[in-house]
Amino acid sequence: MFNSVRVRLTLWYTLVFGMLLIGFSLFIYIVLSNHRHAKLDHSISNAARTTANFFQSKMEENAGDAERAAGEALKALQLPDLHLAFYKGERLIASDHPEWRGLAISKLVSMASRPEGDTFCNTVDRFGKEGARLALLPVKAASDDDSDAYYIAVAEPLDDFAGQLEAIRQVFYFGLPATLLASAVGGFLLARKSLAPVVAMSNQAERISANNLHERLPGSNERDELGRLATVFNELLSRLDHSFENMRAFIADASHELRTPLSIIRGEADVALSQDRKACEYREALGIIQDEARQLSRLVDDMLELARADAGQRCLRAEEFYLNDLVEESCRAAQVLATQNGISLSVMTHSDLIFRGDEGLLRRMMLNLLDNAIKFTPSGGSVSVNLIREETRVKIVVSDTGIGIPAESTARIFERFYRINKARSRADGGSGLGLAIVRWAVEAHNGSINLTSQIGQGSTFTVTLPL
Ligand code: ADP
C-alpha cells in the first residue's frame, strides 16, 4: 500500500493538513477563550467599581455603618448573573449567594493575580457548577477608621462561558475528523487524477519494445511537468528509434557488402576446384580471390573503425605533428595510383604547420579523399591539394576535375554505404564507407567538411580544422 505514490501523497497531505487544522483550531480556541476572559474581567471589574461607589456613598449616609451600607447596596444593586459580597477584614459582612461563606478573604486575596486597573481578577473553582470569575476591589471608606480593610467581591459564574467553550470544542471534536476525512478522500482523488497521465505513460512505456519504437507516450499538456516528461521521453524514443533504424540499415548494408566478395571468392574457388586446371588458371583464380579478400578486409577494417567510433571506444590519440608533412606524404602515397590512372596530382602546402590531433586518423582521411578524387577522375584529368593556413584554422582543399557529384547526392554522400554508382564504386574497390570515416575524422577534430561539385566538371572537398 505504501508503495503507491497516490497513497503516500494522500497520507502526507492529510498529515500536514491535519496538523495545520489542529494548530489553527487550538489557536482559535485559545484566542476566543482569552478574549472572553478579558471581557468578563472588564465587566466584573466595572461592576465592582460601581458597587464600591455606591457602598461608599451609603457609608456616608449611614455614618460609617458598614453592614447596613453593604446590605443597602446589595438590595439596590441586583445585577443579573453577578454575585456580590462585602468583607470587612476577614469577616464577611454581606453577600447575596451562599457560596461566599466558604470563601475567606485571605484566600481570595492570595488567589487574586490579574490586576484589572484597581481590581484583582481570578477564577474560583468552588462557586456554582463550573466555578466563577471573580473581581476583588479594596475599598476606602473615609468615614471609617479601619478604612483599608473593606473588600468588595464580584463573581460571575462561568456556566455560560464553559457552555460556549464546550460548544466550540464539540465543533472541533466532530468537525476536525470529518474535515480531515473529506480532505483525505479529496486528496486521494486529486492525486489519482494528477497521476493518471503517469499511469498511462508507464502502461504505454511497458508496451514499447525494439519492435515498436515508433510509438510514443501520451502527453496532454506539453507545458506542464508531466507533459514535459512525456516530451523528453518521446524525444529519447525518437533518438533510440533513429539509432535502431541506422543500426538496422547498417547491418543490412554491411551484410550485403560482405556477401558480394564472399560469393565471388566461393564461386571462384568452386569453379577452380571443379576440375583439374592449368597452373595459370589457378593463379588467375587465386589472384581474384586475393583481390576480393583484400577488399573484404578493408571493408571489415572500416566497419570496425566506425563501430568503435560509435561506441566511443576509438579515442583520439592527440599529438603534435607537422600537418604539411602529413599532406605531402599522403599525396606521395597517392601519386602511384594517380600515375597509373594518367592523372596529374599537384600539392601546395604551408611550411612548418604544427597541428595537434590524431595523425593516423587524419592521414586516413587524406588518403580516402585522394583515393576518391583519383578514382572518380577520368584519365588526363588532374587532382590538386591545397593546405591553407588561416588565423585560427587550417583548410585542406582537395579538388579534382572528375565526374562530379549530382546535387541531390551531396547531402547523402557522407552516409555509410552510400554510393552514387554502386557497380562502378565496387569495381574501383570502394565500399561506401570512405567518406563516412572522413566525416567522423573531421568531426572528431571539431572541424567541418564542405563539398562543392558540378557534374562533369569536378568536385572540391574542403576540410576546415580549428588550430
Ligand atoms: P567509396 O568507397 O565507394 O569511394 P565513399 O564513401 O568514399 O565510398 O564515397 C561515396 C560515394 O561518393 C562514392 O561511391 C562516389 O559515388 C561518390 N564520390 C566520392 N568522392 C567523389 C569524387 N571526388 N568525385 C565524384 N564522386 C565521388
Task: Describe it.
With 467 residues, the chain is α+β, with helices and mostly antiparallel strands. The protein has eleven helices and 13 strands. The chain has a six-stranded antiparallel beta sheet, sandwiched between helices. It has a five-stranded mixed beta sheet with strand order 8-10-11-13-12, with helices on one face. Helix 8 (359-375) packs antiparallel against helix 11 (434-444). The protein starts with a helix and ends with a strand. The relative contact order is 0.06. Bound molecules: adenosine-5'-diphosphate (ADP).
Question: Secondary-structure map with pairings?
Answer:
Elements: H1 5-61, H2 66-76, E1 83-88, E2 91-95, H3 105-111, E3 114-116, E4 119-124, E5 132-139, E6 150-157, H4 159-207, H5 225-273, H6 279-311, E7 318-322, H7 323-340, E8 344-348, E9 354-358, H8 359-375, E10 382-389, E11 393-400, H9 407-410, H10 422-427, H11 434-444, E12 448-454, E13 458-466
Parallel strand pairs: 8-10
Antiparallel strand pairs: 1-2, 1-6, 3-4, 4-5, 5-6, 7-9, 10-11, 11-13, 12-13
Helix pairs in contact: 1-2, 1-4, 5-6, 6-11, 7-8, 8-11
Bound molecules: adenosine-5'-diphosphate.
Residues 368, 372-373, 376, 400, 402-403, 405, 413, 418-421, 425, 430-436, 459 line the site of adenosine-5'-diphosphate (ADP).
The neighbouring-strand order within the major sheet is 2-1-6-5-4-3
| Shape category | rod-shaped
Summarize model confidence as the mean pLDDT: 86
Radius of gyration: 53 Å
Helicity range of the residues?
Answer: 55-70%
